[in-house]
Design a protein that fits this description.
heterodimer; A: 99 residues; mainly beta; six-stranded antiparallel sheet; B: 366 residues
Chain lengths: 99, 366
Amino acid sequence: MTALGVTLLVQRDCLGGERVVELQLPRPVRLEDLDVVEGVVHREVLTSLPRPFFRLDVPGRFLLTGIVSDPRLRFTVRMAARERAVELALETAQRMVAT
Amino acid sequence: MIYLDHAATSLPRAPEALLAALDAANWASPGRGMHSAQSASRVAVQRARDDVRRLVGFGTVVFTAGCTAALNMALHGLRPRPRVVAVDPMIHNAVRRPLARLGARVWKLPSDLAGRVDPRAAERAWQAETELVVLTHGSNVTGLLQPVAELAEVAHRKSARILVDAAQTAGLLCPLDVGEADLVAFSAHKGLRALPGVGALVVRDGVELDPLLSGGTGGEAVAVDMPAALPERLEAGTPNLPGIAAMGAAAALTTTREPWPWRERARALREAVRAAGLTPLGEGELPVVSCRVGHLTPTMAEEILDRVFGIVVRAGLHCAPAAHEHLGSGREGAVRFSVGPSTSDDDLAMLTQALRQLEGMEGGNS
């Protein structure tokens, strides 16, 4: 548990580079939370699925995925930013929770 | 949750195996001293060893910490040390990495696009001084079975030993049908549905192995060297009694009861994937299928199947980058679906339904 009140788990994918940081926010994600993520060039909310899955692509930094109305987030942090993986994820989560 | 990662570890465990493990947690250390408690334990371990041996039908069963440990024991312990080793294209990292550490020259046996080795072509392409052939009995990526018995004949005609990685087949194929293989490695927690952390290396008579670990065996305590006889030579330290008991119980079930219809389930799994419009990678017989899902990366497909549909599958390279390289999926890997005895028709229908949605998915921008 972090100061933000989020639960954090760091994993590695099996392809050898990216860091995967999973966070559980203190509350479910809302659609408007996605607006505060900086540097997003591609935003997709898959509303055709039984649960609205979203992905936000921040090039060179991370891919953020999750489900609207679910508190869990997954940051797939790109190679170039992997040393700052936890920091990037926490900063972003902080911004989302503050909305 | 619909669990479709049985190729990694099969759940739920066999109840008989769990009960045996509970009982064995209170066993004394076998072969240590001559008191009655260790005698009972020794008899029970021997019974488990006999039950596991019946899966293969020959050799001495050496209990290990799993299939990876068994493969390392074989690859690093085999004497004379192999300098040239032939492998099939579907090898797991449990073979690839120890071979790299061993420093052996490794060559790939000729195969078709699915990775199935052709024994006659293998004999024609045989490279001089090959002393060992390592075969993946069943691929953990595609479920492909290799013609192990025929390849063992080829290897022996060429005076090479043959080591079989039976991680995916132990507990399914019964008997294991590995022909005249010299060494067979497998774990307890996949097809056998016993516990993780235990496995076996079956060693045919006449095959010489040096131990990777040295230590107490309960006998010949004065000697500095490990005992010459198997299994003691390769079993230093107190054994994993709950693991061994569970493995023995699961092996006894496998050899005495009607097996679950895994061939039929494998066909049903392939049909379920094809019904969603997806094309399995390669070909295979075991209940394991891998494929790409629409335009999604494998990790994205895994995440959506898990979090949106509650279907647990496995994305990536499956610790078998060589296999994915052969299949043309070496960059990102694939999504793997593997079923077990607990998988129902309804589970497969749900999988098809979910995959159809992903295959034809049109994500809306908000």
